[in-house]
Amino acid sequence: MPEMIFRVRWPDGSLSDCYSPSLVIREHLTEGQTYPLDAFARISREALSIAGARVAARYGFPCSRAARQIAEIDAMAARFADRAEPTVTVVAFA
């Protein structure tokens, strides 16, 4: 199963490399696109849940890295939730 990294820019300008165990993330996020913070977190959670389920279906066990990535995105999003109109940009897929 092909995995991929997607790099994002958070509201403070910092960059994070995020992991997906499947290319399904490309069906949900667009390279170069800027998203409202809550939408980015929701879409990422959805896509990574689908990716994790694909791993479970194929290998018989859930993808712990996908679950950790969801938790990391949620934690980062919580850091910026109090900002006025925070956004996240998907910088690149690798």
Radius of gyration, in Å, reads: 13 Å
**What is the string of helix and strand elements?**
EEEHHE
Placed side by side, the strands forming the largest sheet appear as: 2-1-4-3
Percentage of helical residues? 40-55%
* Tally of helical segments: 2
Major sheet summary line: 4 strands, antiparallel
Short description:
It is built from 2 helices and 4 strands, in the order E-E-E-H-H-E. The chain has helices at residues 37-59, 64-80; strands at 4-9, 15-20, 34-36, 87-93. Helix 1 packs antiparallel against helix 2 (64-80).
How would you explain this protein's 3D organization?
This protein starts with a strand and ends with a strand. A four-stranded antiparallel beta sheet has the order 2-1-4-3. With about 90 residues, it is α+β, with helices and mostly antiparallel strands. It has one domain. It is built from two helices and four strands. α1 packs antiparallel against α2.
Furnish the topology, listing elements before pairings.
Elements: E1 4-9, E2 15-20, E3 34-36, H1 37-59, H2 64-80, E4 87-93
Antiparallel strand pairs: 1-2, 1-4, 3-4
Helix pairs in contact: 1-2
